[in-house]
Amino acid sequence: MTKRLTQPELESYLWGAANILRGLVDAGDYKQFIFPLLFYKRLSDVWDEEQAQAVSETGDVDYARAMADERFVIPTGAHWQEVRETPKDVGRAIQRALRSIEAANPDRLDGIFGDAPWTNKERLPDHTLKNLLEQFSKHTLSLTSVPEDELGNAYEYLIKEFADDSGHTAQEFYTNRTVVHLMVQMLDPQPGERIYDPTCGTGGMLISALDEVKRKGGEYRTLGLYGQERNHLTAAIARMNLALHGVEDFQIARGDTLERPAFTDHDKLATFDVVLANPPYSIKQWNRDAWQSDQWGRNFLGTPPQGRADYAFFQHILKSMSSPSPFGGGARGGGGSGRSAILFPHGVLFRKEEAEMRQKLVEADLVECVLGLGPNLFYNSPMEACIVICRSDKPVERQGKVLFIDAVNEVTRERSMSYLKPEHQAHIAETYHSFMSEAGFAHVADLDEIAAQDYSLSIPLYVKRNSNGNGATEDERSPRQLWQVWEQGGRQFWKEMDELVEMLDNLGKDA
Predict the structure, then answer these.
(1) How confident is the model at residue 86 (pLDDT cuts 50, 70, 90)?
(2) What CATH number has the domain bearing residue 393?
(3) pLDDT of res. 477
(4) What pLDDT does residue 25 have?
């Protein structure tokens, strides 16, 4: 009988494979070898399981093979066990098997294994690859021994561990999952909706949306999950991630979202019910000239400065929300008005160079909530990010209003990483859903109030934090509480100073 693996056993087993590579390849490169082998082993074991079940039911081996091939085809010579028995040139055998499986399943698996240098014997000699194959062969990764949710969780565990190990590449490879969970709770995806991430990385936001629907007992199989990712290896990892989570209706496209958006409908962008995104911050290498006459109409707020593409991604996301929208849209998604949650640097809320675009954004009444997060939620960075929630058609009671939330203290730090506890997430999400002011934490501002601040969305302009939360006067507060108030007042100044220093630094580089 096949042993059912516990989550700790599964994680230890998978991390053992990564440890075999330690000292041979950079930690940042573990993923290009470990993820394809994990997925390959899973495909082979599920194929074996389905064939064995069909044989037990029919006694017909040829029919059983045809039944196993219905989910995906593993050609003769490409099965895990056949490669495991290869005496030499193991890397070439692995590469040949992976390409054979991709070619036999072009609709679902084309390019999914990436392009790791399996045949480079200086990095991966035969004995190392044999050790890897034997490590993975210690357990059976069938659906019986490792259900989809559990393998998906282990996959996410590896993504985080690889991010921890590689450090310098972690931020682009892994977004703090507690922040992602919060974003999903705020947008509340529903069964049947189309969910999109234009810079999807390893697919974590899409998986989190799926998990939220599951958690609430919804029919998650009716979701459509869509993503685009510029890095080809990361896009392949995202596809493996979704497949290992048991997702059937998904599309992960490769390519640059700003330059060549993958999801279109004739001459318009395709639109989605829910858009989740953590775009790359303030990228400088992008085609600003093309944006000025963007064929998809994504420059409706204006053209961002060359040194900061944040508002290019912002406008792409707004244009990708399902109708109704004051700026139109393409193919409508499965639900009502589109909504989005975007992780941004605070600069998008107040930078002078984007003031005109920001004013148009506010006047269009697309912004529903601006949420400030605490520090150290991102790898190797003490920065405080923000989440901007937008909606193409706000409920009547929210029209002409924006909710500002200052959640800088809703954070816990352990060892080298900060995160949001469930109670932090619940407090923030409940405040958003109630859409009510809370002294020192949240404030509902109308558009006139925002206009009076020259359309700045900087959170300290609207949320005046009470240090003790019970309305105490300044004379009644302790020195520590007064220090917190002073610190709050200085945050806006230092954020703007950081922006000025970076702008001057860029001018020096361009000179």
Answers:
(1) very high
(2) 3.40.50.150
(3) 47
(4) 86
Q: In 397-426, which positions are buried (b, 16+ CB within 10 angstroms) versus exposed (e)? A: eeeebbbbbbbbebbeeeeeebbbeeebbe
Helix, strand, coil share (%) of the chain residues, nearest 5: 45, 15, 40
The CATH number that applies at residue 138 is 1.20.1260.30
Per the structure, the count of domains in the chain is 2
pLDDT at 491 over 60: no
Give the C-alpha distances (Å, rounded to integers) separating 377 from 29, 146, 221, 420. Answer: 24, 31, 31, 8
- Confirm whether 503 is domain-assigned: no
Q: Among 140, 163, 186, give the residue marking a domain's end.
A: 163
Domain assignment of residue 87, given as a range: 7-163
Which tokens sit at 362?
């506010």
For 424-446, what is each residue's pLDDT tens digit? 999 999 999 999 999 999 999 99
Nearest to 179 by CA among 372, 10, 1: 372
Determine, yes or no, domain membership for 261.
yes
Buried b / exposed e over 187-200, threshold 16 CB at 10 Å, is: bbbbebbbbbbbbb
Average pLDDT, the chain: 86
Distance CA 55, CA 293 (A): 60
Distance between CA atoms of residues 166 and 270, nearest Å: 36
